[in-house]
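HOLO CASE FILE
Compound: fe (iii) ion
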Amino acid sequence: MTDLDAVLGNAGPTGLKERIAAELAAVRERSLAYTDADDDMLVRQHSPLMSPLVWDLAHVGNYEELWVLREVGGIEPLRPEIDHLYDAFKHPRKDRPSLPLLGPAEARKYISGVRGRVLDVLDMVDLAAPDPLRSGGYVFGLVLQHEHQHDETMLATLQLSRRPGLVRDGELPPGRPAAEPEVHIPAGVFTMGTDTVAWAYDNERPAHRIYLPGYWIDRRPVTNAAYLEFVEDGGYRDPRWWLPQGWEWAERNGVEAPLYWTRDGDTWWRVRFGREEPVPPDEPVQHVSWYEADAYARWAGKRLPTEAEWEKACGGRTYPWGEADPGHLGRWANLGHRAARPSPAGAFPDGASPYGVEQLIGDVWEWTDSWFQPYPGYRCFPYEEYSKVFFGETYRVLRGGSWATHPSAVRTTFRNWDYPIRRQIFAGFRCARSEE
Ligand code: AVJ
Ligand code: FE
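Model generated. Tokens follow.
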């Protein structure tokens, strides 16, 4: 199958344009829902880690203008004087509130003006053109995924704000008792990354063969109940489990449980979008840093999987359950903010990989042991600031997406990354171990 067929399916180029238009409308509805709040809420900085929500809102429109209108459409800048405000490399997040940003009403007007012209470009563009930005609608995949990524960032900001009543919750299927807690993956070669997924990022390419010795991987992400055993066993007070930098980070910041958790007598509570509730035992733990995940794994006599081990456990398909787009049915994974939380362990048996590993996609991003590095044969496209400038031994890779990740913005080859101290993202983990 060529790249183009992979995204066209049976629909042909017109079907692709319709799908893109529908996805653009859906992601914008999402961004507007997360910014449907009073102006003070939108311009305020809720945490030095995050931008004001109104920055994310205008930034997604500015990104769309740069890539679709200017780069592909050849259209002159609409408001060249604001470009620098929304360039993530010009101003660090903590400085963004003091910039002369567009206000909420102005930002909404700006992004809707951009969007109108984007739909004109979509109408005229040849999606079968050889140019890699046009071919298969790549540039539209780029802006769609980008906006969904910022929508997830906005959810993290809304969670940090501790303001109730702003984020919709929903129903999830119940959990199931575990079968065998670990799955054995036999030694052998598998293909990591992709050459064929049409909207894959440069960092997911090229596909390459990797040999892995046999290993065991947890069938499901580590739950709150399991993590609590580590907490109650004094895991946070025992340097044997921690890397020195992680130990120092936890000591300096008084970290003794996942972010948003507090203890009241024998009960642990968490704050979730401004409301307190008891920590649910069966959900995957979330809001832990890489250092905490790594310490838990050592305490448990295991280790974090490498990203190759994580990806191999998916079984070599676009999704663990096969090629079916997760967007249409809620059958395979907890993605796209169906509810504002991870689903209990075992809630998605149909989403298991051919090896029987569950909940790889959705629920919580999973920390891996790997640094964010380029694959052999990596070629930067279409710009260095998405992936290339982040490669090195600074960021750890996360895989699989969370409950907040949209289905169009994740697949088994998708790579996310963050600093090992970060906990505001919707991240948890599963463990692995080598064969004896
Ligand atoms: C892929 C989630 C690490 O949000 O920092 C957004 C994605 N790049 N705008 C981020 C991104 C440019 C990025 N992550
Ligand atoms: Fe961005």
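CASE NOTES: Residues 59, 63, 88, 146, 150 surround fe (iii) ion (ligand 2) (CB under 6 Å). The chain has a mean pLDDT of 95.
CLOSED: yes
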